[in-house]
Amino acid sequence: MTQQQPPAERQALMNALHETSWQYIAPVYWGGDELDAHSVVNNGTCFFLRIGQKLFGVTAHHVIAQYLSWTLSKNTQPHRLAWM
Questions:
Q1: Rounded Cα–Cα distance for residues 65 and 84 (Å)
Q2: Are 69 and 76 in contact (CB under 8 A)?
Q3: Which distant-in-sequence residues (6+ apart) come within 8 Å of 62 by Cβ?
């Protein structure tokens, strides 16, 4: 995409990228009680990469930092670190 492209063309590409990206991300969340949605204390998003036979979840550093900070402050692991 370049600045020389007509604005409508640039907007169409941005719309397509926005719509397509939702097919590749998943929410990730954690909390104290896996059966109580009110116990979710934080969340973020991730995407998955398959490398050979292994599947890796990839998220932002600040999401992992928040997760680690929460687990260290509670001196426990949450009942669920999950994605849908």
A1: 21
A2: no
A3: 44
Question: What confidence tier does 22 reach under pLDDT thresholds 50, 70, 90?
Answer: confident
- Is the separation of the CB atoms in 45 and 8 below 8 Å? no
Residues 6+ apart with CB under 8 A from 56: 48, 49, 50
> 44: Cβ–Cβ under 8 A, 6 or more apart, which residues?
27, 28, 29, 59, 60, 62, 63, 66
Q: What is the identity of the amino acid at 59?
A: T
DSSP code at position 44: E
What 3-state class would DSSP assign to 4? coil
pTM of the model: 0.61
Pairing of strands 54-59, 25-31: unpaired
